Amino acid sequence: MSLVIVGSLAFDTIETPFARRERIIGGSGIYCSLAASFFTWPGVVGVVGRDFPKTAMEFLRKRKIGLAGVSVKAGKTFHWEGRYGEDPNERTTVRTDLNVFADFHPVLPPAYRSADILYLANINPELHAPILEQARGPKLVAMDTIRYWIENKTEALFRELERTDILFANDEEAKLLAGETNLVRAGLRLVRSGPSLVVVKKGEHGVLVFGKGFVFGVPARPCEIVVDPTGAGDSFAGGFLGHLDRVPKITRREFRRATVFGSVIASFAIEDFGIERFKTLSQGEIDDRFREFKNLVSF
Amino acid sequence: MSLVIVGSLAFDTIETPFARRERIIGGSGIYCSLAASFFTWPGVVGVVGRDFPKTAMEFLRKRKIGLAGVSVKAGKTFHWEGRYGEDPNERTTVRTDLNVFADFHPVLPPAYRSADILYLANINPELHAPILEQARGPKLVAMDTIRYWIENKTEALFRELERTDILFANDEEAKLLAGETNLVRAGLRLVRSGPSLVVVKKGEHGVLVFGKGFVFGVPARPCEIVVDPTGAGDSFAGGFLGHLDRVPKITRREFRRATVFGSVIASFAIEDFGIERFKTLSQGEIDDRFREFKNLVSF
């Protein structure tokens, strides 16, 4: 199999009640592909400005992430600044400078066109069609979205949902998208709107996965300290899809295991700022934490 | 084993966005003992006024709940009125008339003094000592509490925690009691303050159980419709303790199974107003839903 991720490569400036980091490496494409790189060899498609550091590209390459789809444009890299409250679920966007990301028209390199899994990480839903036209019948199309697209590109979003296999959303987005106040009704309604799988991320409360005729739930790993929640959701998707990409056959059981691997990798991502934790993370740590999850929920 | 529950027997007036019920049967002692009655033969200790209907007492008796500890006093039964928002987690207390409950001085009937499990369901923590003095060394003392006691009887509450084996609390109460904004730190801190087990109820997000050196988590059963969330927490405790009361030996594994049985019985309680659902609930339905939980979380 093969996994191609279309998303942002960015600088993030992050402030928590305990520390501040300026212009560290981030973006959905980076978090997701780094997380996936512990399971498979993903390719990433995105755009950076000339200010994007070579050391960051080197690190991605070292993790065996395909970079043929990353174009370097004159101008500055996408920059997001956010602030977290005492409760890490409280996040405020301080500023967003789209920069070169504003004119992002994703081009799949020839080798990526036959990807088995294509992940469109909360990009403008109007960009889905031109991407999918370049692809040659992927087995799975997955997407994430954000409040901004739900509110501003509603029609395009629902059109794209119809040809999406897996939708990732957080609980707030799922309710908003479905127009439901009850999360379970929202999940089931979204399953009827197209995707055969709707994966609802609830942060510290874990994940609920809705499929046609089945529901799966996993609590989050109990974390005493959350250093930086940025990228947790993108890392989750990377672990989830990375696992699906490495199994010989995608079954309901593998969806369940993918959910746990996604939760495992997200639980590492939040242990340090930005992508720092991925620099030291080992396969053994991932396997240990997978077993920890078994122990967490078994009865 | 034997389980004795000290709590309220009450009238509840409940309003949801969809319906209103006046003066239906409720109270922590009733929800808890009804839930427990599907697992064991609990006794309840409480007080009612002369206005408490005989038919309600008859129903409890039919469920084999011991009523020797229920005294009937001149005056009116405790009456609580509450309103739920569109989101069932939003609950407003409209009024509380303590009535005969204001002078509640629990007396354990002789047969209850050797109870193995004693559950003090969010009563004034200053009443714990006189109750425990009447008991002859219970194997397990369990308690629940509410924001009111945490804020107004803080000292008494912490004193009682030291001799409590199992503390039930919702997430908000656990954080408040521990003075922590992170729920996991709160749970671990409470375990250090006395109870060997801290059971944190998170409503639609399930339950986290903290013990000395272990954590257990279970998502809530995904519910599309919540008719009336009143008594869900008390029902959870009843199922939890009822299960512990019936097993020959209380082990870590039984704590885990107790958590699931508690979640199962709570998931039934919210399907109808007040105690209605307990009138039709069967053992087979409980067993089916226990298996459903296995399926919900297995991977």
Structural notes for this entry:
The structure is a homodimer of 299-residue chains. Chain A is an alpha/beta fold and 299 residues long. Chain A contains ten helices and 13 strands. Chain A has helices at residues 28-36, 54-62, 128-134, 147-152, 154-161, 171-178, 183-192, 232-246, 252-269, 283-297; strands at 3-6, 10-15, 20-26, 43-49, 66-73, 79-84, 91-97, 117-120, 140-144, 166-170, 197-201, 207-211, 214-218. In chain A, the strands form two sheets. Chain A has a nine-stranded mixed beta sheet. In chain A, strands 3-2-6-7 form a four-stranded mixed beta sheet. In chain A, strand 2 (10-15) and strand 3 (20-26) form a beta hairpin. In chain A, helix 1 packs parallel to helix 8 (232-246) and helix 8 (232-246) runs antiparallel to helix 9. Chain A is globular, with a radius of gyration of 18 Å. Chain A starts with a strand and ends with a helix. The mean pLDDT of chain A is 96. Chains A and B meet through helix 7, strand 13, helix 9 and helix 10 of A and helix 7, strand 13, helix 9 and helix 11 of B.
Give structural attributes.
35% helix; 299 residues; 9-stranded mixed sheet; homodimer; 4-stranded mixed sheet
What's the β-strand tally of chain A?
Answer: 13
Average pLDDT rating of chain A: 96
Described by strand count, sense and barrel closure, the largest sheet of chain A is: 9 strands, mixed
Treating each run of at least 4 consecutive H or I residues as one helix, how many helices of chain A? Answer: 10
The proportion of residues in beta strands of chain A is 15-25%
Poorly predicted regions of chain A are none
This entry's quaternary arrangement is homodimer
The Cα radius of gyration of chain A reads: 18 Å
Secondary-structure-based class of chain A equals alpha/beta
Outline of chain A, from the CA principal axes?
Answer: globular
Secondary-structure element order of chain A, N to C: EEEHEHEEEEHEHHEHHEEEHHH
Proportion of residues in helical segments of chain A: 25-40%
Q: If strands are numbered along the chain, what order do they take across the biggest sheet of chain A? A: 5-4-1-8-9-10-11-12-13
- Give the distance, in angstroms, between the N- and C-terminal Cα atoms of chain A: 35 Å
Of all chain pairs, the largest interface belongs to: A-B, 35 and 36 residues
